[in-house]
Design a protein that fits this description.
The structure holds 2 protein chains of 2 kinds. By secondary structure, chain A is mostly helical. Chain A contains 7 helices and no strands. In chain A, helix 4 runs antiparallel to helix 6. The termini of chain A are close together. Chain B is built from 6 helices and 13 strands. In chain B, helix 4 packs across helix 6 and helix 5 packs across helix 6. The N and C termini of chain B lie far apart (about 70 Å). Classes of the chains: A mainly alpha, B alpha+beta. The interface between A and B is large, with 66 and 68 residues.
């Protein structure tokens, strides 16, 4: 049972990353695509708390870092998404109650996540763009995540909820 | 609430005081919090560890085997996913260019869905054929042997690096540091390859440096990407000789390196769009508009050695197909 649940969460993460890389580029705006992995992490954190959220964030981040065509220093997305999970975990009680707070959480997490990734790039001197371009990318990414979140966040939260109730029942 | 009841039962059976359970900042909650703090702390440390290991290594990072494993597993999945949505993608591109045809297709789709799919598929195949034709022409013009491949994945701009996955890898004879081009010009170079896929760093990436030569006066310089792939995707050219002023519209081709690694010589890159000089630097800098449209990359060619043996047809420049 635990294995199959882990498998389910793993499959969701894999699907999100694959969609992001191979499918979403047909709707990319200036190369920016909806950050589905980030929304998965936010959903995990809201539904199950920052502990599981952080694990999901680390896994999803590392997958983005290692899966082709990633070229940046590995671990940068992992770090950004773990911290996103912590942030989303902080407001989980409110985010569960109101969908609007959930959306706001996604927006804030998108901004923080992409910014953290950009900052780590600046610190490491790894694929750093001029600040103007970075701000633009962060802005478009935020809008994309806000557009996608209403359709993706509630089902994902429900999915992570289901894995919890099964856990308690045994 | 069922959940609450469960918590009570669990708490009681563990012998914890119930009063603490009901309170928001009870012992149970804090214990959970500490646990999660530990996990989060460990994961942050792990992330920083991976970053340190990968950033500290120069050429061969200890992370590379992990990259290879993940690439080998995820690459084919990306190729499959991309294959599934490809008709949709090509249709979108095609319809964007033909508003009139969009109306036609809409009317046809109402009449007959089968007919509609034919309408969408035919230009798609024709486009593909044209691109392959173009590649063969390029092979003939440049005299290089090439393996054709398709772009199956594109890194999100959120990662600030501009790289794509192609659906050919070491099984087709593709290795690191090979030149990638399409029928418009230089696309980039292979930075890593698994069995069935390879990652290509586009020339517009900020980490990409290409040796370039001005077409009219053979002056050499270095082209650096700006990290943007959209219509504003541009390259900066620094010329070695600071007395030379590049002319607008001058074509820049690759200058080529030893053994054609990572770039073979004579591949068109782009043309000079504007020239400017900064007070700090003596040399003139030129902005290059690349010939390749990086937003709609599809069929690309990887320059391989002539005697390459692989599971794909090698388009030989002079001698025809093998």
């Amino acid at each position: 049972m635990i294995l199959s649940r882990t498998g389910l969460v793993g499959a969701v993460i894999l699907l999100a990353v694959i969609l992001q890389v191979a499918v979403f580029n047909l709707v990319a705006v200036n190369g920016v695509v909806p950050n589905l992995a980030l929304i998965v992490v936010v959903a995990a954190s809201i539904a199950r708390g920052p502990q599981l959220g952080a694990v999901v964030g680390f896994t999803a981040g590392l997958l983005i870092d290692l899966a082709p065509p990633a070229d940046h220093v590995a671990g940068r997305w992992a770090l950004a998404l773990v911290l996103v999970a912590v942030l989303a975990g902080r407001v989980r009680a409110d985010a569960r109650r109101s969908p609007l707070v959930g959306l706001t959480t996604v927006a804030v997490c998108s901004f923080v996540g992409t910014s953290l990734f950009a900052l780590s790039g600046v610190v490491l001197g790894d694929h750093a763009l001029p600040p103007g371009e970075m701000v633009q990318v962060i802005g478009i990414a935020l809008l994309w995540d806000l557009v996608v979140a209403p359709f993706v966040l509630p089902p994902l939260i429900a999915l992570f909820d289901r894995t919890r109730s099964a856990e308690l029942a045994y | 609430m069922a959940r609450k009841r469960f918590r009570d039962v669990k708490g009681a059976s563990l012998g914890r005081p119930l009063a603490g359970e009901d309170g928001r900042t009870g012992g149970f909650g804090r214990a959970r919090g500490d646990g999660s703090r530990l996990v989060v702390g460990l994961l942050v440390a792990a992330s920083l560890g991976v970053i340190t290991i990968d950033a500290a290594a120069d050429e061969s990072s200890p992370i590379d085997p992990a990259r290879a494993v993940v690439g080998g597993l995820v690459g084919p999945v990306e190729a499959t996913a991309s294959g599934i949505v490809r008709p949709m993608k090509e249709t979108i591109t095609y319809l964007d260019a033909n508003d009139e045809l969009r109306a036609d297709v809409a009317r046809l789709s109402a009449q007959n869905s089968q007919l509609r799919s034919q309408v969408e598929q035919t230009p798609l195949d024709r486009n593909r054929l044209e691109e392959l034709d173009g590649l063969t022409r390029t092979a003939n013009r440049t005299g290089y042997a090439m393996v054709a491949a398709r772009v199956v994945g594109m890194g999100p701009m959120q990662s600030f690096s501009r790289s794509v996955t192609i659906d050919a890898g070491t099984s087709s004879g593709i290795r690191k540091d090979m030149t990638v081009l399409n029928n418009d010009g230089l696309v980039g170079r292979v930075i890593s390859a698994t069995r069935s896929t390879a990652t290509v760093l586009l020339v517009v990436d900020t980490d990409s440096v290409v040796g370039g030569r001005l077409g009219t006066n053979n002056e050499i310089g270095f082209l650096r990407g700006r990290g943007v792939t959209s219509d504003r995707g541009r390259l900066d050219l620094d010329l070695m000789d600071n007395t030379v002023v590049p002319a607008r519209g001058d074509v820049v081709v690759t200058w080529g390196s030893e053994n054609g690694k990572p770039y073979v010589a004579g591949i068109p890159i782009g043309k000079v769009e504007s020239v400017y000089s900064t007070p700090r630097e003596l040399a003139k800098q030129a902005v290059i508009d690349p010939f390749v449209d990086f937003t709609s990359l599809d069929v690309v060619g990887v320059v391989v050695p002539r005697n390459t043996d692989g599971d794909r047809v090698v388009i030989n420049g002079a001698g025809g197909d093998r």
